[in-house]
């Protein structure tokens, strides 16, 4: 597990209580292949949608 990585996206399979990320590694890319200057210009490619729980 990646250490000290927090994430608020609770619809991801790697999300755990207290906003902990349980992914073994994190992969983040720039929007439109441009140099990012703010966090909003990046995307987490590690995101994997959690299955809906009925």
Q: What does this protein look like?
A:
With about 55 residues, the chain is mostly beta strands. The chain has one domain. About 0% of the residues lie in helices and about 20% in strands. The chain is built from no helices and four strands. It has strands at about 15, 20, 30, 40-45. A two-stranded antiparallel ribbon has the order 1-2. A two-stranded antiparallel sheet has the order 3-4. Strand 1 and strand 2 form a beta hairpin. The protein is globular.
What structural class results from the helix and strand content? mainly beta
What's the structural domain tally?
Answer: 1
Query: Percentage of helical residues?
Result: under 10%
Q: Write out the strand line-up for the largest beta sheet, numbering strands in chain order.
A: 1-2
Morphology call: globular
**Straight-line N-to-C gap:** 28 Å
How much strand? 15-25%
What is the chains' assembly state? single chain
Number of strands: 4
Poorly predicted runs: none
Please state the CA-atom Rg, rounded to the nearest Å: 12 Å
Elements, N to C (H/E) = EEEE
Largest sheet: 2 strands, antiparallel
Number of helices: 0
């Amino acid at each position: 597990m990646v250490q000290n990585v927090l994430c608020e996206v609770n619809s991801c399979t790697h999300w755990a209580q207290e906003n902990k990320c349980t992914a073994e590694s994190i992969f983040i890319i720039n929007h439109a292949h441009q140099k990012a200057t703010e966090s909003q210009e990046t995307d987490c490619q590690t995101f994997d949608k959690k299955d809906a729980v009925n």
